[in-house]
């Protein structure tokens, strides 16, 4: 299952990976697990998979392609734990506070995020429902994705599952993106699942995005297009808590002023 899932993950990020490459990756991962099975740590790293895949290609007289390129980058850039590291691999992500900075990476930003999110979902799926205290669901984990427009267009089934299933588990997702337009994806409606949405100053926002996010009328959304482009720093437009109003406008307070 891990082999098939990783093949699907890679293919969803890299459009150059077709059926043949997915099959080769699946076989390489299965062979890598078999190689490590009798050892103290019976699981492969990306170096193992890259070496096995490269050997498979050599035996079949195949030239290196996009699959070998991706695996070589994963191995060479030391993006994940590998055998021989002095630091122990992380057992769980969901109980840690951590920042994963990918902005300086020359390659594979989306794939790294995909694999981390996949791991978080696997942990979430094993958790019992989080306790409810005084009518409030306990939050266990917050997944924050900055510059989310880079990831919303990826068909990340694990991110979609966290959004759909995470509430009962106490796992929530926080997106920060450049524009409300980014949440309009044909394959998954992120907008309808946003529990809270806050729009700061941005330009080029579509009326349909504003309407979907705020739940306001089309006329109000069109009126807000210009206003959103002219918002002052820290001014925010959000859904109204008053059912008689279509939106709220207020001034937020900067985090650094409180801590």
Question: Could you provide a short overview of the structure?
Answer:
42% of the residues lie in helices and 9% in strands. The chain has nine helices and seven strands.
Provide a descriptive summary of the structure in words.
The chain has 259 residues and is mainly alpha-helical. The chain has a domain at 1-89. Helix content is 42%, strand content 9%. It has nine helices and seven strands, in the order αααααβββααββααββ. It has helices spanning 2-13, 19-36, 46-59, 66-76, 109-126, 149-152, 157-169, 207-214, 218-229, and strands spanning 132-133, 136-137, 141-145, 171-175, 198-199, 235-238, 248-251. The strands form three sheets. A three-stranded antiparallel beta sheet has the order 5-6-7, with no helix packed on it. The radius of gyration is 22 Å and the shape is elongated. 24% of the residues are buried.
